[in-house]
Amino acid sequence: MKPGPDRSVWPGQLLLVYPQGGNPFSESHFKTLKYQPEFPKRFGCIQDAKAFCRRFFDWYNQDYNHAGIGLMTPDQVHYGQAETQSTQRVRTRASQPRSMPRVRNSPRSRGARATN
């Protein structure tokens, strides 16, 4: 008999059930939520949990830069501000000096020996 979600694999050992083909978006959301420094070990009541999640999702959608969408916030992408933001970043990079000052013992300078 195969173990199911309501049965134990062996006495005293519970079987962890993972959804097949789980939603990667909700799993990513949960991981980000869980590893927030402000995430409490326990919520006092359901109202505390709801209040925390409201603040979290506002931050997640308005302030958190997502690597999967070009370090933009979901709000920037959703409201059509991504192109403007991207153009602004290109202008900022173009205005920066081309060469970085060499720092002694930096990873860049370790490969090449300095000439005196």
Characterize the largest beta sheet: strand count, sense, and whether it forms a barrel: 2 strands, antiparallel
Cα end-to-end separation: 76 Å
The outline comes out as elongated
Residue stretches low in confidence (pLDDT < 50, at least 5 long) are none
Which strands sit side by side, in order, in the main sheet? 1-2
User: What is the count of helical runs?
Assistant: 5
The percent range for helix content is 40-55%
Number of strands: 2
The secondary-structure element order is: EEHHHHH
Q: Could you say which structural class the secondary elements and strand pairing correspond to? A: mainly alpha
If you average the pLDDT, what whole number results? 78
Q: Could you explain how this protein is built, in words?
A:
- The protein has 116 residues and is mainly alpha-helical.
- The protein is 45% helix and 4% strand.
- The protein has five helices and two strands; from the N terminus they run E-E-H-H-H-H-H.
- A two-stranded antiparallel sheet has the order 1-2.
- The longest helix is centred in the middle third of the chain and has 17 residues, at 46-62.
- The radius of gyration is 24 Å and the shape is elongated.
Please specify the SSE layout and strand pairing.
Blueprint: E1 8-10, E2 13-14, H1 24-34, H2 46-62, H3 74-78, H4 82-95, H5 107-111
Antiparallel strand pairs: 1-2
Protein traits:
two-stranded antiparallel sheet; 45% helix; mainly alpha; 116 residues; single chain; elongated
Can I get a quick summary?
The protein has 116 residues and is mainly alpha-helical. It has helices at 24-34, 46-62, 74-78, 82-95, 107-111; strands at 8-10, 13-14.
